[in-house]
Amino acid sequence: MIKGFIFDLDGVITDTAELHYEAWKKLSDEMGWHFDRELNEQLRGISRMDSIKVIMDYNKVTLTDDAVVSLATKKNDIYVASLDTMTPDDYLPGARELLTHLRTEGFSVALGSASKNAIKVLEQLNATHYFDVIGDGNSVTQSKPAPDIFLFAAERMKLPANNCIVFEDAEKGIDAAKAGGFYSVGIGPEERVGHADLRFDTMKQATLFEIKSFFGDLF
Ligand code: BG6
Ligand code: MG
User: Fold this and answer.
1) Residue to probe by mutation, ligand 1, list 22, 25, 40, 47, most atoms within 8 Å of CB
2) Domain 4-15+87-218 in this protein, CATH class
3) Domain chopping of the chain, boundaries
4) CA of 97 to the centre of ligand 1 (A)
5) pLDDT digits (tens, 9 = 90+) for 120-174
6) Which of 43, 67, 139, 144 is least surrounded, with the fewest CB atoms within 10 Å of its CB?
7) What CATH class does 17-83 carry?
């Protein structure tokens, strides 16, 4: 039976995937590194330090550990500054409606994000009250595609994995959900999240009615 929902944040609840892209692009331009949307796709769902390693590997750059940390911090400063203008108008269409519906129907709801800025993003959106449990980049050490963040969220909700549906926009996020034994809903194109149990192009289509219709007897 489905009793809980676990949501990724960036690219599911709000369009911060775009702000992460812009911050990495700015850093890369300053460093003279190549960075484009195709490379950015590989960063969806993975941690900040894993992300900078992907960009540096692509550009065949090696730096001292301290230099890497300081550049990742610089990217984060750019990203965090861009969050200041975020408001409760910045949910992805359909996200707030689904969260509200889950609350009124009494489901347990958790956040399962790789971001260390998740609490700030939830505060900017005024979304904190939708979540019983917040799992973020500080909750576990192994990032997606490892299932740890979702297992953390399920454990805190006191639910087994097969009682939960994970919402994800990242290929590695769906991989993580499957590795943990969760049901999954992918948000985005087939080539990215087509391996989810159920997929929608956008959150707007992801209504509780559609989800219940698909998962049927599990509700
Ligand atoms: C994920 C994003 O949610 O969080 C990644 O999809 C990002 O792009 C990761 O790198 C870590 O975020 P932060 O805010 O801790 O740098
Ligand atoms: Mg995401």
Assistant:
1) 47
2) alpha beta
3) 4-15+87-218, 17-83
4) 24
5) 999 999 999 999 999 999 999 999 999 999 999 999 999 999 999 999 999 999 9
6) 67
7) mainly alpha
